Amino acid sequence: MNQRTMADIHYGIQNPKDLLDKLLQDASKLSKLPDKYDLFNFVVTAAVLSEWICKFYKNVMPEDVLRAMNGESETGLPIDAEDWIDDKSCLPNPAQGACRHICNAIRICWGTANASKHYYWQKSSGVQSIGSEPEINDFYSYCNTAVGTGIFINYNGEYYTVEQVKEILVQFYPSFIEYLEALQEGHGNAP
Length: 191
Prior knowledge:
The protein has helices at residues 16-28, 36-56, 63-69, 81-84, 98-118, 139-144, 162-187, and strands at residues 127-131, 152-155, 158-161. By secondary structure, the chain is mainly alpha-helical. Strands 1-2-3 form a 3-stranded antiparallel beta sheet. Helix 2 (36-56) packs across helix 5, helix 2 packs parallel to helix 7 (162-187) and helix 5 (98-118) packs across helix 7.
């Protein structure tokens, strides 16, 4: 007997495209200093969306892309993903390429959502701090950390604002799902 999925039993959100709509709605509520509940909803939805995408499109997703989405690789996203981030002003250091920042934004949401669900931060999450002021203690952070008001997330020594994470993911996920839908149509597969 096959395990039932959200496509079988659901409350109106049954596939990644439906969950993407919720992510976009959650993102529209975020600001430089977001309400804590809006931030919680966004990071949890973003984390769940990455998991749903991997499960829903597993039959067509290339292995290297799956490894990147599962946090097993820093590379592996489709080459086109660099172009899915139209507004690169959201990247802390655009010279490093969009794919690196996409993977970091996804992992920031995983780590934050996991801690939000289970109360404890995993050391492996990479999230070292979240606060209203970044702790600038090296030249890289001085040159590549956003200035102004915001919520700053220290991910493996690099600062992202909540707005940067939001802008990266709201640009990435629609194009990524469109890419996977095209692969699915080409394979004639239905999950």
